[in-house]
Design a protein that fits this description.
Layout: H1 3-15, H2 22-34, H3 43-66
Length: 67
């Protein structure tokens, strides 16, 4: 899947109401990061990207809890 296809798929999942709740998405990201093989080339960069996504979700969850 190329980047455009991924963005379209994400939008379609969201529009269909199948998006994960932020707390579930954070947990799913943690499972993905836990399963990364860090000895693989580029895996540290992927881990950093996933941690950034997790931080974004964390912030969204915190904002949602304040409302």
């Amino acid at each position: 899947m190329n980047r455009t296809d991924v963005l379209i798929a994400i939008a379609e999942v969201a529009q269909a109401g199948r998006a994960s709740a932020p707390e579930d998405a954070i947990s799913q990201l943690a499972m993905i990061i836990d399963g990364l093989e860090l000895s693989t080339s580029g895996s540290e960069q992927v881990m950093e990207m996933l941690l950034g996504i997790g931080a974004c979700l964390w912030n969204l969850q915190q904002e949602r809890m304040r409302l």
